[in-house]
Protein: TadA family conjugal transfer-associated ATPase
Amino acid sequence: MLGPLAPYAADGPVTDLFVNGEAGLWVDRGAGAERHPAWRADEPQVRALAVQLVARGGRHIDEATPAVDVRLGRGIRVHAVLPPISTIGTVISVRVPRAAGFSLAALARAGMLDGAQEARLRTAVADRANLLVTGAAGSGKTTLLAALLGEASASERIVVIEDVAELRVGHPHVVGLEARQPNLEGSGRVGLDALLREALRMRPDRLVVGECRGVELRELLSALNTGHDGGAGTLHANSLDDVPARLEALGSVAGLTPDAVARQAVSAFDLVLHVERAAGGRRLAGIGRFALEGDRLAVAPC
Structure:
């Protein structure tokens, strides 16, 4: 499925592959990207590989559409960018999912959680707390969210909404909805906000948004404020302190004022879980709760 990249994706606990034009291939096994000395490909070969991978995901990449994100089988996510948008040649980024998601116990054994954090998160899931998982790219947000959802009761129906499906949950009743990009004529787009509205008609016991990036935040906040507990989402942020500003920025895209975002977020989310990636690996760096400071949103560690 990944063509010449397949052996590298299967070589141990690989999470990401990066082809930077003729400069080479970098492989990330969870401790940072390292250049692979055996890879050789010139720019025409890398471009041909990008075209091939994107086509396998049902889309096309060319000068008119020079940046494309697709999902291949088993949840593999491929992103490609052509020159001159990319200044170093064709760039391919591949996110490789685990064959099976980690449990909370496995994350604790791997050092992502300590014993107290593991117990607290189990309680939060059992109590149907609404959770927001935050962190930088590649910090382990999706991994932690999947582990949390895997702790939900088998009798619960989980509806997961993602821009590109990559969340792999070890649970018997998971329904996945994936956004659709517009076709060549610019029509046919189905965004996360529309999928959220559809998901509410599917009687979810837990409503999950893989990543909040824009106007879908308004729909998620509304849903979690109207009786949909046990929900979750992820958000890009560099620290717990940065989360309020990120939510306010996304809220402005959705037409929400900062005070509206603050009041809804305080009511919608019970815990904010921030993960970080350091030299020693990924870890749950902090747990917080949203609070109001006047009319503005803040996060208080807890």
About this structure: Residues 104-301 form a domain with the Rossmann fold fold (CATH 3.40.50.300). The longest strand covers residues 281-293. The chain has a mean pLDDT of 89.
